[in-house]
Amino acid sequence: MFKNNVIALLVHTCLSFIAMFIFINLNDGSISKIICTIPQKIFAYSTLTLIIAAIYLLTGFNLKDQGLILTNALSVSVVSLILISVWFFSEILNILPNGYYSIFNFSFFPLLYIFSNNKLVGIILLFIPSILLFTGLQLKLRKKV
């Protein structure tokens, strides 16, 4: 279970940094000169989000089965637990700066950027990485049967 959580956290961190780099280049970097209209940016954000979701599913597919559904869910839950903690400390208690949550959950920042006025989307995005990892792990088990 520990190994799955470490892998999930490493993949999430790497995807967040890669997504942050791409997102910054889409808005201010060299890519922004090519992709300049709003429909092109929305298409680019959507494509980035779908690729990241697919990587989460593939990562979950490669994780080790823990035996029970509950232990499988717990084995990928560290990402959501950290995201919930960071969100709670930044949005509710105002201990952390406001942008800190966005930086840690940058893998789905394009969705947060598109739906920036909706707080419910921000809360739902806390659970998406773990749900995708868990789904990939369960798909692996279905393939075995």
Keywords:
145 residues; mainly alpha; 9 helices
Describe this entry's structure for a reader.
- There is one protein chain.
- This protein is mostly helical and 145 residues long.
- The protein has one domain.
- The protein has 9 helices and no strands.
- Helix 1 runs antiparallel to helix 3 and helix 3 crosses helix 9.
- The radius of gyration is 16 Å and the shape is globular.
What does the secondary structure layout of this molecule look like, with pairings?
Layout: H1 2-27, H2 31-34, H3 38-61, H4 69-74, H5 78-92, H6 99-104, H7 109-114, H8 119-124, H9 128-144
In short:
The protein has 145 residues and is an all-alpha fold. It contains nine helices and no strands.
Class from secondary-structure proportions: mainly alpha
Number of helices: 9
Query: How many structural domains?
Result: 1
Low-confidence stretches: none
- C-alpha geometry: globular
**Fraction in beta strands:** under 5%
Please report the distance between the alpha carbons of the first and last residues. Answer: 22 Å
Overall average pLDDT = 80
Radius of gyration: 16 Å
What is the H-and-E element order? HHHHHHHHH
Count of distinct strands: 0
Largest sheet: none
> What is the share of helical residues?
over 70%
